[in-house]
């Protein structure tokens, strides 16, 4: 491979995708939609940023940083034109578990150099920033190594079970804001049980103002979201109900002084400037490396899945490896400014796309809205009750929680997939999201081995009047040629499943060829003795034994496999390449040409061998061997050498 100027140019352009789509930007057609989308998405991003920072046990404004710094980098490096980059609830919750483990509410802080003398909030912000930086390093490394394919090991079933469990964790974590309680942070296995125990032991101390406010917000937001969904074809843009309710809640809280008069926990001070960039803490790297890697995978997997949906819908291509690079650099850049770890949220991306967004210009405009709010009018959000943010988070969990409806469908469709979903869900609920993901992945890999080692083999037959062959158990009007068995192998053949296939094949044909071969040789020896004594002549009795030989044909096999068999000296004077056929129907036509259906008299002779002429009934009654299969077709999917 030679390196020339053209290759260098193409490589550079692939690393900066903005150059490609900016050349084809249609200003008159797309700009207005991008502006409307950017403003709408920016308002939602502000609210979600404030809310999701609570999941990470951080002060609210760090969520605003996640809606600004990573968006700028993704604008230049990302390949998706429609996803909204920023905080993602599942990722924020995973970050929060690490933050509370290293800097607990009441217990001693993990002994880390560089955190001495800082307040709890500052310590947590430093841990979160370093963790975000490390997540970015992992993502960038995977992107440069071109290993974006790793997401294929996270199946839709596993991701569904994992995100549903994460939604339950998020729901439970927001109850303390809904009820206005002081609940310490828990992490590790059974953390969800400890949180619920703490909530129920304090339930009598519920702040009624928080509870009523949260219920009102949830009911209104949920109702208007349903209206948006039902009439989305008639509405020019979705009603920004979260933003509206936030403004109303801020006004009411300020007017009645909820914080001082009623003890309502509010967002509080929001700085009117960004913090100066900081270097990550290396000791935090050492403590969180095991946690950061699965977070890097989860953050990328979710964003890539959402990006694929919109890429297919709008007919353009996204590059998984470039997406890893884009999110890696985004999180490194964001971590330097103490941003929360970024990915994407389906609800926020849906707003960006449904309001007319065509490119990431909408994304950069949303970042500008966040910038304006942070620097100019952030103080207006200071009286916002945290219970309102908790209510907004819970309402936005509807999509993830509704994934539970998939379980009955999966049970009917594929019970192994259903088991993967349930195990991943339960493990993530009780062991924590990090261990739950590991358990789910392990079960999924075991399922792959199980499917490969113990596949569902089947005997096929012809649908009458067609050249179509299906499992004979699934159809009534189906034709199975006499003397022919079609055995389908639906998985690669290799050392681990060869014995399983052999057993299924013997079950399908109804006899063991080795046993018949031994019986045939024994009978032949007796016949030779009788012939030698002159007691039996060599006629039709021998033809019955000849019919015991079963001819094998292999169909629908990949040409590469045939070449592999040739190189392995598989073929000889007995096994020839002529046993291979391109299609099953071709093989069947060949068999029927060589072996036409029996006449009525031949069937009678087969069913009543004592009536056959020139035969010794006594010998046949003792040594009768009848082969039910003369031809065997093996439908081979593939072969693993």
UniProtKB/TrEMBL annotation:
Work out whether the entry's keyword set contains 4Fe-4S: no
GO CC annotations?
Answer: membrane
Q: Which residues form a coiled coil?
A: none
Q: Record's CDD domains?
A: STAS_SulP_like_sulfate_transporter
Q: Which GO terms describe its molecular function?
A: secondary active sulfate transmembrane transporter activity
Organism superkingdom = Eukaryota
What positions does the domain STAS occupy? 474-591
Where are the membrane-spanning stretches?
31-54, 60-77, 84-103, 131-154, 175-196, 208-225, 237-256, 292-312, 324-341, 361-381, 388-404, 419-450
The protein's location, in the record's own words, is:
Membrane
Keyword list (alphabetical) reads: Membrane, Transmembrane, Transmembrane helix
InterPro entries in the cross-refs: S04_transporter_CS, SLC26A/SulP_dom, SLC26A/SulP_fam, STAS_dom, STAS_dom_sf
Q: How does it sit in the membrane?
A: Multi-pass membrane protein
Alphabetical list of Pfam families matching this protein: Sulfate_transp (PF00916)
Gene3D superfamilies xrefs: STAS domain
PANTHER family in UniProt: SULFATE TRANSPORTER
This one is known as Solute carrier family 26 member 3, tandem duplicate 2
**Protein source organism:** Astyanax mexicanus (Blind cave fish)
